[in-house]
Amino acid sequence: xxxxxxxxxxxxxxYFNSKFGVYFExxxxxxxxxxxxxxxxxxxxxxxxxxxxxxxxxxxxTNNLLDYSHHIGIERHCLFxxxxxxxxxxxx
Length: 92
Known about the structure:
- The structure is a single chain.
- It contains two helices and three strands.
- The protein is of the alpha+beta class.
- The protein has one domain.
- Strands 1-3-2 form a three-stranded mixed β-sheet, with helices on one face.
- It is globular and about 35 Å long.
- The two termini are 17 Å apart.
């Protein structure tokens, strides 16, 4: 995990199946969880059906950690069961 004390146009990033996350000024605990789960191969909830996304939701409509709803004031704090089923085998 890399924390950079500079402003950026986003709060953080990571790549799928990576072992790192980069966090900029303005990140919060939701950002750390969001980017960590990307590193564990979870996509955004609104990315469309992919090999790792079983369902697709409208952007800004859920309180899911992989949504961008915090941009409109909805606190992100949950995962869906299908996401847990992807993550659990990866937790050591």
